[in-house]
Amino acid sequence: MTGEPRAWVLNLDAEHELAAAGRFTPSAHLRALVRRERRRLLGNLVRPGDVVLDAAELEEERSPRRAAGLAGLAWSPTPNALRVLARAGARVPDAPPIAVLRAVNARPFAATVRAGLEHRAFAKPVATAAEAFEVALEDPVLGRRLTHTYRIETLPVEG
Question: Distance (Å, rounded) from C-alpha 151 to C-alpha 133?
Fold first, then answer.
């Protein structure tokens, strides 16, 4: 991949920050979990040459502006993530207010979005009778997924 290096805040604990009232400080255990999980994103989401920022590491550095001028990105543009990008000198992206982030991260929002996708990619139907299964197979999206995933073949019915 080409393009200028970017500065990342991989705040995989964003849902905890969004759930917190006031300023959020992750526990040592949560920081360790995030460090472990963000390694999986290196080479996938994070390109070679990109800079991954960590709030705790920035506090310890004598020259924390190691991302000066780089485009700033975050797993979730929470207030803490934006502060880390600014402290490192990255170009801080526009971000929605925290109230919006909290609303779209909440379960009711996900349930509302999913409701419009009934019997589509997120559906997990269970057929308890042959007729229900046949109806599922006739659905243009679900039927194709079922036959591809399970390699369904018509079997002779013994009588």
Answer: 14
